[in-house]
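Sat 14:20. Reprocessing the chain from the morning session after the first attempt stalled halfway. Input below, unchanged.
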Amino acid sequence: MFFKKLLRIKEAWKIIRSILEGKKLPTEKIEIDQALGRYIAEDLKSNVDIPTYDKSAVDGFAVRSAELTGASLYNPALLKIIGKSTIGSHSELTISEGEAIKIDTGAPLPKGADAVVELESCSVLGEYVEITKRVAPFTNVIRKGEDVKKGEVIMEKGSKIEPWHIALLKGVGIEEINVYIPPRVALISTGSELSSSWKEGKMVDTNKPNFKNLLKLLSINALDMGIVKDDRGDIRKVLEKACEVADIIVTTGGVSVGERDYTIKVLEEMGEIYLHGVAVRPGMPFAFARIGDVLVFALPGNPVAAYVDYKLFVELSILQLYNAKLQAIPVIAKLEYKVPSSLGFKELIRVKLIKREDVIYAVPVRRRGSSILSSITRSDGVIAIPEDCEGMPGGTVVKVYLHTQPWTGIIEE
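Finished this time. Tokens:
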């Protein structure tokens, strides 16, 4: 048996995206302290200016800059100290001609003042301060709204909440936000040879723990549907059960074109298969299907191939459902030595980044088989060799797509 048609990655993604466009995730309102890692479902605007007033950036004296135009070490300006502005206070003091006010870092700038001279350039002489330098308007002053302006969008819809976002949102008084409710994802591993832990004569199912933790990074606690032996009836039963509890099903194994590849055969019976086979290595035996309203991503069993398809299709699909703002920036590097590839396939080569004499090199990991999981742990990311190339020569400038970021660039190439 052979795949009916191998689609290029871009063509496969176009099909998946067209199905995703008809799906919308529900939302919920949660407290900001519980929002870490969630994706926001609306633009968030500040209701206040931050800071809410002009304030000093240093300890020193608040002054009128026009009075210091001639100040120098040999011609210091002498100003009368009429009070002090401290942080956390609200002073009604106003500076007039010939006056200055002592001010703390972060304290409000008094009325009439438009600059602050740091203490190092000042000498206190009783009730007066001697200043030996000129300053421009708003020197050492943090302006009202300089950090955040009232009405400004501080987070866009689809942004992921990171720790620093929580700090900023609290700073502008936002305590609750609308976020997307994560899709329910069920994981199914198929293969009579698999075991959940190490046993003599068995293979450990490494795909499920890998995907469980990758999905946690997307705020999803995946449903573990267990390991299913290579039996057509058993696979159907677990798929039927998963359809009752999940929005998305991710299977591994049984998706190629062999006689015992039962997963793809059962999917043909139960639902609609939109694509089967992608021109990518590793990861060619990938299928995308739907059973009722449940989306099914059928991945190969080999760990590296499954991981590649997860990054290319599962992760990006979930991020699309979140309307996620993707900030994936590949690392530009030089390929250390020539690597071969197969014409007609997009080859994803695992590489390690090494810096030598201010040049970043992408060093291909020699262990390249689709079942060699250590090739992922020994690498920082992948490079993509286009379908119309037969390899890349050493010294080629390449884009390295990191394991820690979405691989949007590979889809777009």
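The mean pLDDT is 93.
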